Records
---
Amino acid sequence: MFAVIATIVTSGVAYRTLYPPPSEQFFAMWILGSHGLAEQYYPDDNPNLTVGSQMNWTLGVYNHMGSIEYVVIRVKILNATLPSPDDLTGKPSPIPPILEFTRVLLDNETWSLPFPWKILNVTQTAKGYVLTGLLIDQKPFSGELAMAVSGFNYRFIFELWFYDQETKDLAFSWRTNNLQHSVWTQIWFNATTTVST
Amino acid sequence: MWTPLANTQNLEDPVTLTREAFTRISEVYRSGGEAPELVAKLNVAIGQIQEAQFARSKGDEADAIRLEEQARTEISEIMADIPGAQERAQHDSTIRLLTVVASIPVVVIVSTFMFYLGLRTWRWYEKMRLFEMRIVEKKKEVD
């Protein structure tokens, strides 16, 4: 009798060892300030940025999807009125990204990447202030990047996309336990001066 | 590690290659194996492709082509290494399965034997207590 019970218990343990139950699947993404903490995102903690003032952020992504993942961080610049990503529908912001970061992450791997940036140029027009020059990770970006009335409430939006092997395309949201999930984060700033101070 | 998206053109091929390589590597992981060295190589190739895209956006077509060629070479090497990694994964998976299945009778035999030993020890202990009680009772009768 004991041998029968021991066989059942041991077989159960062996099965769980070979086929562990799936844990909750998720990605996490965060932005840290200049000292690697969730503070001091701007020089002197002042979000009213001037041309040339240097920001040193760090982006972080954690993969807990239970498998290796091909992830892409899409960086977008918006103002207050342009639509954000929608958590309820799982749709990304319709604004095109200005750049992307791509990497393959192992399960349980954390990816940290520096995101140093500064404003190179702000142009004042009849409609408002237009961000026309940025330097991100020593790479220049120019053109009409974003426009804000009075230069207030620009924002960087970071969207986390991943490669969906079923659709063979990048996806912004996924379903787990019948719930839709997507990951994105944003940081606001103002750029109200057109010259370096 | 990053991709400027302005002024990009004709970038499908190397990016598609990295995604194909990723799909193949993830098959290795799904079958219970691991290939961190291939993932690291793929990340190098992704970095080269992104640098190539930036070079192209700056108008440096020659540098872009050179970087893309390096990335293609990396990806070719990855693709060549994947069957080996797949075989290792299947081998490791079989060994793991056999080890766990073989351990079941061993655990059952050992635990049953331990249970049997415990039972015998308990019976012997009870017997000794009974024997001791009888001695005490006899002693009382003598007194």
---
Amino acid sequence: MNEDELAASLITSLQPLGLGAFKSAVHRIKISGTVDKLVEVAKALDSSGFGYLHTITATDLPKTNEFELSYWVGSLEDGKKEHVVQYVFRIPKASPSVPSIMEVWPAAYYHEREEWEFLGITFQGNPDMKRLWLPEDWDEAPPLLKDYKLQRWVDGERERHGLVVRGD
Amino acid sequence: MGLEKIPGVYVEELSGEGKLTVSVGPQHPGSGHFRIIVTLDGDVISNAIPDPGFVHRGAEKMSEYRNYIQNIPHLERPVILDSTGILFPYTLAVEDLLDLTDKVPERAKYIRILMAEFNRIISHEYFLAIQGIFLGHSTQFIWSTGDREAFIDLAASLSGARVTFSYLVPGGVRTDTPPDFEEKTLQACTYMEARLKDYRRMLFDNPFMKMRLENVGIISMNDAVSYGLVGPTARASGVNTDVRRDEPYSLYDTVDFQVPIRTEGDDMARILVHLDEMEQSCFIIRQVLKKMQPGPVKFAVKGQMRGRVGEAYARTEAARGMMSFHVISDGLPEPYRVKIDTPSNRNLAIMPKLFKGLHLADLPATFQSLDYWPVEADR
């Protein structure tokens, strides 16, 4: 099955939701939608052979004050397994809340916790929106936000840690 | 019971039920800093909470501050045993963004396969070595650690480094093969194939090992799919997945190989899948050496690398399973966002369910059989 045939079949199975699907690259199908259709899209993808969640990417878009989320879902069925489907939507930064898809794919648990921790997006339905990767005493902004800048050690801090400061 | 109760306390008796909460880790038990908080009822685990993140270093954030070439050395750090495994999808995604995909020379594509398979063997041998430690079998540790050297030397002869090779670059590979490389590679493959037979005879047909490993830590096929498991862990549970075959990249479609599948889903199956894969890797290496023709190994990019505005998603089969990169570019020399999806991060999802009901004594062997590498999961 090539990308166009697959996109057409996905459009049919997503018919009640009124979403389009198109080829975005070789073996990549993109579905753009909204956050409120996420769980239904996940269920529809799961029942049309795409039940193998790869990852979730969330990106900070400060220019439009939005987050963009991509859900990458693969397949294990012959004729489909070379393709990866991307479900994309944007949410306003003012209310960063997304329903959890753990009921469809338990695999989402750690991916959702990760996006909560690094970008501050809350996943409704995920029971553990708490620190995992960052230090337990982390009290700064979520680090993957674009206005969080990587910090350098200044000389005083280095000396306090016993490091020799050369003229750099 | 939650994580917040644990710091500073190693053993805690919960009120009334006679259960103990024990913190396993976060010392370096052989595969990186990681902790599992287990609740014990006698010696049976009634609850297990994995606690990763001790070696998180923000590789994704750092990538946004460095250009496409500068990102190569630091992106390898999370996966030092399988540095080609993590650079392969990164390189493919960057080539997509830079429109280099069609310009990579054929010889470079074949050398990439060689390096990826060398790395798979190096990583799998390390897995076997640590599995030996976790079973208290020091022979396995010594054998595997010694046998990896053959392939480390080959990789070092290509890249100049023993651990982090930084060998794949957008456009090709850094250097061509040295003289008598083919002969040495064939020797290493012959040696490895013979050793794999020894491993089976000495280690895995051994009744004591069978008692420790068979029917322990079973993952069903349904769980493996719904929890999104990848790589040898998924294949040991009967999930027929291998990106090299499913979505062939870099001329993997021109070589013939089998994807080892087992259906038992226990610790032993996961180990045997690793052995079978190393055999297949040697088989692939032999074919590639025959197919390789002299030619350029790199398409030199002139000037600063700038990606088109857009995104690319590339996935490959690293040693521990599917590794994917989602790279978003806004046209600057640095990527706008890099998302790294590592196999260890995905295999983490099954741990709470898998460890529940195990005997505490089976925990180390079952944990290691997942080939979980904490640094890779933490990134």
